[in-house]
Each structure stands twice: as C-alpha cells, then as structure tokens.
Write a structure and sequence with these properties.
five-stranded antiparallel sheet; three-stranded mixed sheet; Phosphorylase Kinase, domain 1; 293 residues; alpha+beta; Aminoglycoside 3'-phosphotransferase, Chain: A, domain 2
Length: 293
C-alpha cells in the first residue's frame, strides 16, 4: 500500500473547492483510495484518489498527468468515465483526484448473453471515439516497434514473445484507436443495465482495436468462462463489422503475454490452477489460429 500524506490530500481537496474539508481516507486497492469529504452546509460527498505503482511510474514518469489528461478528454467525448478534478505531481507518488461514480462491477452470472452484449458495447464505445477531435498524442503506441522492444524476463513469457515476434511480419493492422489497455468486467461499473463508468485508464494506449479485444478475451475467459468469451467476441465483432479480424490470434497471444503474471492477481490461491489451465488453452488455441492462417 502506498503511503499518502493526509495534509497534502487535505490541501488538494480545498484546491478543488475552498469550502471542502477532508473527513477520512479509506484504501480501496493498491492504487485507489476513497476520500470522504464535507462540502459544507452539512452535506458530504465521496471522491477517488488514484496513484500508480513504481513499475508504472518507471514505464511512464508522467503517468499521473497522462491519466488525468485522458480523463479530461474522455469526459468531453461523452464516454461514461469519472471526472478528473485535481492533479498533484509534487507528492510522491503523484496522485489525481476524480469524482466517485456509484455503481457495481458485478455481473449477473445467470444472464451471460446480456452481459456479453453490454461488455462488447462498452469496448466498442471506446474504440469508436473520433480521434480527429481528440489530442491523445501523449499516449503510448502499441505497434511493431513497441512490441519488438519488449524484453520479457520470465522464461515462459520470453518463449511466447518469440512466437509473437515471428508472427508479427504477417500481421495486417487495423487503423489505430484508443485502447483501454485493461478492459475486463472489474473495470466497468453498472447501475442496473446502464453503464455508469469505465474506470482505471492507467494502461491506455493507441493501437489496433484487436489488441484490446484479445487481452480482454482472456480476462473474460477467467471471469465468466469460455462460452462468455466467445459470445463477447462475436458481439464485439458484429458491432465493429468493418474491422479486419484475421489477426485476432496474434493479439490473443500479445494479450496473454501481458497477463502472464496472473497468479499475482488471482482472486484466491485456489483459483490459480484453473486460471493456469485456461491460460494454457487460450495460448494453444491462439498459436493454432496463427498456424492455420
């Protein structure tokens, strides 16, 4: 858990509105904390404070600023996201404060078809943002050069990266879109059937929409199972019907390479064997898809 300076957070809250006063801080996750704030006249509100891991800050020294900028841009597009309120880069680690969005990330397991339609529509909404009206030049790009520069440390991941590098020259790329980078059910908040917010944009980048789809397919396999993964994929591709999906096995592998550390975020230790088997099957299917192209 990152150490936060309560005095600096109090100052930041008052910089948003001089009438506001910080009442309490509650850690939600490794990077998110809930701020309970008095707004005056006996009214209160909640805010969200976001930080970034040392690994993410090494990857992008200005990641807090970039996530803040991205949320500002996304709010202008109408995409449901939290509103960025304040950025404090002098704190270590730097943090940003956003509005709190009421909603639940839980999906009803009894309604797989509806869930998959909603998830696919959420991803398509991100990829449909008109880039000609947005300045997203500060975001990293996932392209052949970026993939080639990756240097995985673990042996299994290194072998997978070699398969990706060998397949890369044959990949037909789609026009770049905004990518969420970590699209999975836990990063979508719902109010009933309505999407309240898409959260956690620290991994956002620009690139082929299939990169987002491939990585999220594995996330949905783990979260909801193979039937849901296939339904989700079909619904997304039906929405984005102009997309050339021939390279999906390649992007499945790319997504798997980025999620090879899954034991570190498994919901419980007993879930790891099943996740391992699903991961192995997902990778094998992707390699088989490459070989049949």
């Amino acid at each position: 858990m990152m150490i936060l300076c309560e005095r600096e957070i109090q100052r930041s809250v008052r910089a948003i509105d001089p009438r506001w006063r910080l009442l309490s801080i509650r850690a939600l996750s490794g990077r998110a904390s809930a701020l309970h704030v008095s707004t005056g006249a006996k009214t209160e509100t909640r805010l969200i404070l976001l930080t970034h891991s040392q690994h993410d800050r090494e990857r992008d020294p200005h990641i807090a600023r970039h996530e803040f900028q991205l949320l500002k841009v996304l709010k202008e597009t109408g995409l449901p996201t939290p509103e960025a309120l304040y950025l404090f880069e002098k704190h270590q680690p730097p943090f940003l404060i956003t509005t709190f969005v009421e909603g639940s990330a839980k999906l009803d397991a009894a309604h797989i078809e509806a869930n998959c339609r909603r998830l696919a529509a959420g991803l398509y909404a991100i990829h449909s943002i008109n880039l000609s009206r947005c300045d997203l030049s500060f975001l990293p790009k996932i392209d052949a050069a970026a993939i080639g520069e990756q240097s995985p440390r673990a042996g299994g991941r290194r072998e997978l990266h070699q398969v990706i590098l060998r397949a890369m020259p044959q990949v037909e790329h789609n026009a770049p879109a905004l990518l969420h980078g970590d699209f999975w059910p836990g990063n979508l908040l719902w109010n009933g059937d309505e999407l309240a917010a898409i959260i956690d944009w620290e991994d956002a980048m620009m690139g082929d929409p299939l990169a987002d789809l491939g990585k999220s397919r594995l996330e949905i396999l783990w979260a909801l199972g193979p039937e849901a993964m296939n339904l989700y994929s079909a619904h997304y591709l039906a929405l984005n019907h102009k997309l050339n999906a021939s390279a999906l096995p390649f992007w499945d592998l790319w997504g798997a390479s980025r999620l090879s550390h899954y034991p570190s975020f498994a919901p419980a230790p007993e879930a790891i064997p099943k996740m391992r088997a699903q991961y192995a099957g997902f990778v094998a299917d992707a390699i088989g898809g490459l070989e049949t192209r």
